[in-house]
Write a structure and sequence with these properties.
The complex is a heterodimer of chains A (about 400) and B (about 160).
Chain A lengths: L4 H5 L8 E2 L2 E2 L1 E2 L10 H14 L9 H20 L8 E4 L2 H16 L5 E5 L8 H10 L2 E5 L12 H5 L4 E5 L11 H10 L3 E5 L11 H4 L3 E5 L10 E5 L1 H6 L10 E4 L4 E3 L13 H17 L1 H23 L3 E3 L11 E6 L4 H9 L3 E2 L1 E3 L4 H7 L4 E5 L6 H11 L3 H4 L2
Parallel strand pairs in A: 3-15, 5-6, 5-7, 7-8, 8-9
Antiparallel strand pairs in A: 1-2, 4-10, 9-10, 11-12, 13-14, 14-17, 16-17
Helix pairs in contact in A: 2-10, 3-10, 4-5, 11-14
Chain B lengths: L3 H4 L2 H8 L13 E7 L4 E10 L2 E10 L2 H14 L4 H14 L38 H19 L3
Antiparallel strand pairs in B: 1-2, 2-3
Helix pairs in contact in B: 2-3, 3-5, 4-5
Classes of the chains: A alpha/beta (about 400), B alpha+beta (about 160).
The complex binds pyridoxal-5'-phosphate.
């Protein structure tokens, strides 16, 4: 059954609020999604009914909190097709999950001249940790270029992967919407003897995720873009890798034993979860997964393909040559992220004008400055869509966009 | 919500469309400083040449939103021919108009008065920016960058 965005909006309390006296038209879900009532309630319920620390107390509340947290891990594992719950590590966000891999696996396994391959369309979260390893350990950072349509240009893939230790790629670009051929890349990486990491931050919220099908060794994503709370992200990795990797942060929860002489680490996944974990956030993420399963990930994807098609048609018909929408032109090849330029008006000014009509879009470099340079612009406006958006939101964007002319077009 | 007309005043849009003192200067004798607004990618480059404590020439480069670029243009038109002491007072008065607390590091030289006695002239048009707090950084970027350039110019080599 197709999604009913009007009914879905009723699940999201924030959609009731007014902005500047009018309806909220939220088109920035690529930055963070709204939260359904079920997620907000699950978090409140934890604090109101069984707030306590996990893996520590033997009393009833602590047992409930520990169970709730581990149940959330189980839900996430099933949601992404992981074969074991212990392969799901809770981190602060996707950024921390990627840094965890760079700091632990990377430090232990990479040395001077070891190639790590990324792409030109990465988010800074999948660039800067590797720049840091370049500075500290002299790794050789290589870049897969993009073509004029915003797809990866794989012409030189074999050469780039020659000798590589790791290929790390966003499954969906947060600027262009491009869906990358992850399985093909993973197979090529493995052929070349490299491991495959996937930044699924813009994928898991929008498409059915199967980490085994992807052929990945590491997958990182973030809770707040998939109806979950802020403060929680996930690193999934194959058990053998997690077993062999050194710990990340040191402290409570991650140890088996501590003496004056040293320490031994707890079992995976706790080995990588030092300190009191984000318990309420994990519970909230579990509720988000339930909520998304209730809608159906296939249905979500179908809805977004249709809405993206409508947005591309509407904006192009209405504004023709006055608008440039970056990225693939086929809705089936992309996510619901539309980065655009309008009549050369600066995106910051476009976003300011749109705000007057309650239309929320993001303006800027979207944490992808190397990509901006390749696109030849310093910034874009970005409208991004999710389960609660429908054609009326696209129409509101299209209507308000023309208002910018009054100020900027003579 | 505040009116967009308060933000996008005609004089601001005029400076945006027809920026004054656009270009570069030879370094040395001029000094160059670059300012970034990491949030939105606005970029301002300031070249400034001093002669006997007076801003002898100034050129501005970079790219960004209407507010950042118009503010840079208006700043260049205002400070040319002024002494560095006047400039520090203008800077302070401008920041005050933007509701920014004075930062002692911004104007290390002791200054008489609080800057209230100095006329901001055309710069007053940027007052409406205060009603749009996110844009204050756009308006002040060029002033930060100019202060940076002057610091460099006045540091003995
Ligand atoms: C592709 C991609 N990777 C990584 C991130 C980082 O997510 P977070 O800031 O939650 O760590 C984002 C979101 O901003 C993203 O879009």
């Amino acid at each position: 059954m197709a999604l009913d965005p009007a009914a879905i909006r009723a699940d999201f309390p924030i959609t009731c609020r007014k902005v500047h006296g009018g309806r909220l038209v939220y088109l920035d879900s690529a930055a963070t999604s709204h939260k359904p009532r079920a997620v907000i309630d699950a978090i409140t319920d934890y604090y109101e009914r069984y707030n306590s620390n996990v893996h520590r107390g033997s009393y009833q509340l602590a047992v409930e909190a520990t169970e709730a947290m581990e149940l959330a891990r189980n839900k996430v594992a099933q949601f992404i097709g992981a074969s074991r719950d212990s392969e799901v590590i809770f981190a602060k966000n996707a950024t921390e999950a990627i840094n965890l891999v760079a700091r632990t696996w990377g430090r232990a396994n990479l040395g001077p001249g070891d190639p790590v391959v990324i792409t030109e369309l990465e988010h800074h979260a999948n660039i800067v940790p590797w720049h840091m390893l370049t500075a500290e350990q002299g790794i050789d950072l290589r870049w897969i270029p993009i073509d004029a349509n915003g797809h990866l240009d794989l012409t030189d893939l074999d050469r780039l992967l020659d000798g590589a230790r790791l290929l790390s790629v966003a499954a969906v670009s947060n600027v262009l919407g491009t869906i990358n051929p992850i399985r093909q890349l993973a197979d090529a990486a493995h052929e070349a003897g490299a491991l495959m990491m996937v930044d699924a931050s813009q994928y898991t919220p929008h498409l059915p995720t199967d980490v085994v099908e992807m052929g990945a060794d590491f997958v990182a994503f973030t809770g707040h873009k998939m109806c979950g709370p802020t403060g929680i992200g996930v690193l999934w990795a194959k058990s053998e890798l997690l077993e062999a990797m050194p710990p990340f942060l040191g402290g409570g929860e991650m140890i088996l034993n501590v003496t004056k002489e040293g320490f031994s680490t707890a079992a995976v996944p706790w080995k990588f979860e030092a300190g009191t974990p984000p318990i309420a956030e994990a519970v909230g993420l579990g509720a988000a997964v339930d909520y998304l399963n209730g809608l159906g990930m296939e249905q979500i994807r179908e809805h977004e393909v249709a809405l993206t098609g409508y947005a591309l048609r509407t904006l192009n018909q209405r504004y023709g040559d006055d608008i440039t929408i970056h990225g693939p032109t086929e809705p089936a090849e992309r996510g619901g992220v539309l980065s655009f330029e309008y009549k050369g008006i600066h995106p910051h000014d476009v976003a300011q004008v749109l705000d007057r009509s309650g239309v929320c879009v993001r303006a800027g470099h979207h944490c992808a400055k190397p990509l901006m340079r390749v696109l030849g612009c310093a910034a874009t406006s970005r409208a991004s869509m999710y389960v609660y958006n429908d054609e009326s939101d696209v129409d509101a964007l299209a209507d308000a966009l023309g208002d910018a002319d009054a100020f900027f077009i003579e | 919500m505040p009116d967009l007309e308060d933000l996008y005043r005609e004089i601001i849009l005029d400076h945006y469309r027809n920026p004054r003192n656009r270009g570069e200067l030879d370094t040395p004798p001029a000094v160059r400083a670059e300012g970034f607004n990491p949030l939105c990618g606005d970029e301002v480059i300031v070249y400034v040449r001093l002669a006997n404590g007076v801003i002898d020439d100034i050129k501005v480069g970079g790219q960004g939103c209407s507010i950042s670029q118009a503010s840079a243009s208006m700043m260049s038109a205002t400070v040319i021919g002024r002494t560095t002491e006047e400039l520090h007072r203008l800077n302070r008065a401008f920041k005050a108009m933007m509701s920014i607390e004075p930062d002692p590091a911004d104007d290390p030289a002791p200054i008489n008065g609080n800057g209230a006695d100095i006329k901001l002239g055309d710069l007053e048009a940027l007052k409406g920016v205060v009603k749009f707090p996110v844009r204050i950084k756009c308006a002040t970027l060029s002033w930060h960058t100019l202060t940076q350039a002057l610091d460099e110019a006045q540091t003995p080599a």
